[in-house]
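hiii so my PI (J.) wants the whole complex modelled not just the main chain, which honestly fair. so below is everything: two entries, each one labled with what it is. i double checked the lines twice but i was tired so who knows lol
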Amino acid sequence: MVVSTEPNTTSKKPLPVIEREEITVRFAGDSGDGMQLVGMQMTNTSAMFGNDVSTFPDFPAEIRAPAGTLAGVSGYQLNFGAHKLRTAGDRVNALIAMNPAALKANIADLEPGGILVVNEDAFNKGNLAKAGYAENPLDDGSLTRYQLFRVPIDKLNAEACAETGLTGRAVGRCKNFYALGLVYWVFGRSMDPTLRWIQDKFGSKPAVADANVRALRAGYYFGETAEMFPARYLVAPAKISPGRYRKVTGNEATAMGLITAAQLAKKPLFYGSYPITPASDILHELAKHKNFDIRTFQAEDEIAAITSVIGAAFAGALAVTGTSGPGVALKQEAIGLAVMTELPVVVVNVQRGGPSTGLPTKTEQADLHQAIWGRNGEAPLCVLAPATPGDCFIMALEAFRIATEFMTPVMLLSDGYLANGAEPWLLPDPAKLPKFKVTHPTSPNGNGRGFLPYKRNERLVREWAIPGAPGLEHRIGGLEKEDVTGDVCYDPDNHHHMVCTRRKKIDNIAETIPPLDVFGDPSGDLLVLGWGSTYGPITSAVERCRAKGKSVSSAHLRYLDPMPKNVGEVLSRFRAVLIPEMNLGQLLAHIRAKYLVDAIGLNKVQGKPFMIQEIEDKINELLNHNNGRKK
Amino acid sequence: MSTEPVTVQLTAKDYASDQDVRWCPGCGDYSILAQVKKVLAGLGVKRETTVFVSGIGCSSRFPYYMNTYGFHSIHGRAPAVATGIKITQPELDVWVVTGDGDGLSIGGNHLLHTIRRNVNLKILLFNNRIYGLTKGQYSPTSPLGKKTKSTPMGSVDYPLHPLSVAIGAEATFVARSVDVHTKHLEYVLQRAAAHKGTSFVEIYQNCNIFNDLAFEYATAKETKDDTTVYLEHGKPLIFGKDRNKGIRLHGMDPEIVTLGGDIKEDDLLFHDEKQAEPSLAYLLSRMHYPDFPEPMGVFRCVERPTYEELVVGQVSDAVKAKGTGRLEELYDDGETWVVN
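here's the output for the full assembly
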């Protein structure tokens, strides 16, 4: 729909400007081409313009796979909209392909009629062969269903940067900014935020800054003068709650949530971690902020990471480890020790494709069972799962709130999609954050017997006495202990009692968490129940179906163990329950076992998030053909 | 070490917890426990600032018997637990009690990395060359050919030498003693306690149930003078019942010589525990019975900043450079925008 034309100062005829509710752009190139960088630049620029944004970076596990090959293709998908967005977009409206491999790996996701910008210079014989093209797809007619724009980016970028004095190789590194400039023009984005970023980033290397600026501008002006594009596109600012915003990824939000907890508790933050994709950015982020009394410890392995955290918690720090599924598997014995010693530790699991090394850079939700049941013995702990990148902040705070209030390990289940995906984030006001108080006893509780580590309050929580406090010396450890006294104890009845007590204590957490909210009507034919990063596609699919009059609602679990107290009651108000998960039905099994509800699974384990359409199709299938399942 | 005077002078007994000690009667661990308590009392350290951390195995029950803070952790991981404690509260005195299986087999990785970081911990490795708690399998320090329940035809595993491992990781303090030589053990523990950085002490410990007399050569009255050599800083290596034998360097190799005739004390190897390069200490750690007398005492004692000092130092440096962190600044990454 052409809504207006805008006078163009340099071109002869005014170009039509087409207004869209949302646009999905994907940048794709070699993993060394800087696609993530320009994707993030456009995300920031669009967010600052006022759009809602949602992103999905998709990169290979290899840092620099052989150039030009399919294995080395790195992509960054950005959805920006004039309304609330919950996903990075099902279909790509505009694809920027920097070489044949990038084209081949991504073209299937481009909508028919979509904009396809290719770096024509990269479509040479060698690159075509590496991508497995027998014929040049730019010439063989295979791309006629798209709006193909052939731009000699290498050549034009080199010309733009000719006078910078940089080597050809250094100039070549600017071509991502050339492509970005062109995309900015097509979508009416301002270059200013990126120009500022270039100055900040390369201020100390003026020639490099200059070249990137030239490349960005040249790309932009190429769009303006080449008369190649029949139209420009406009996505108006979204209606978002007022306030100051920034873009945040799940890993950034997690790190800020952890720091915030420690600051509110007036405690040092101890982060013991072993580098692992996709969790390492939490370590990087925390290591940047040591002036918040953050003590980061890059341990020799996953087990040292969790056990150092247990030691730090014993000594009174707010202590947390972060890892991914393979790391959690290694940590489980030690997490059992934290269960046994009832120490407050937080374990962040940024889930990725498994089993084993699996798909290190791809997303998955297959660690729910590992989180709830993954340890030897009856070893319950609290399991939380944020729903969006920004929610990682809230749930990281909540993890420490629960850990310290209940003296228990808490596992926070993020995933690759949340960790690297980004959304606008309303900066919290520190004064309005929940109060967070942590106390340690200063006098013995044993009526003459010193400090009794397993003497409990009415919620079954023990006291957190820490070394340094005179008169409270005590010993804890992995052997079963007598309740109250903490003496090593092999008594059968005591063991049964302690096993039940540890479980009951976790159940007591349910008294302090919010009830499960229902999106849509409180009852109806179908409830779509989810957890973790599927929040976006589930909610959007339900919203679309409801707009078409379907009797469907959704609910999202952020507390997996214990669950909110009203879950059973919510489930009972719907004729059928659908549970989409990026696994083979782990929440499904849990819900069936716990509530005896014959829920239906929708399972996708491809290392990719759900598309809205996939969930919408399943909802329609259930409501149309089955009319919901009879209770 | 927290060596400030305490109001009431504690005795060794004051460091005992109310728990019954459950090691087998005759176990070498009793002697080590007694010497540790004695040393703590002698140094006047406070119970409340002292933490004993252990892993799994007979030796690892140690913390339950001390009236200090204590953590009986899981197999092999005590050095990592202790590292977390030290980084959080650097002023605490933290002791790690481990064994040859706990420290060198399942926990070998943590031991190596804790030592190379120089975390200010006192690590006591009770070496009995056997798995006791699991009832008698060979350990990483059992000699080749050792017949045990799991090696009925003799072990084919080449053994590890704990001090060589520690020195390979460039430990700043390395020492050895024996459970039954209580005076010497007390001296070595005092030295370990006084050192700032990782103190690694190997204690030959007799398991009278599953590996009795493993160190008889080094403890029996008739043989010990010829099978051990006591190290003293700045002194020549002399040993033997008649103190007439010495260790001399022949090129890069040690050799046993008899004093008298052409061979004078000055020709012998002089011990230097402060040598920056760990080569001499390593050479000493390679001297094994029956070819050589086994050195006892402090092999190496050098200065290096402790890990927790450096970690906490970076926190203070960051505060100096950027000011105490404020949450408003944390949230604002410099690329914010306002929605009205």
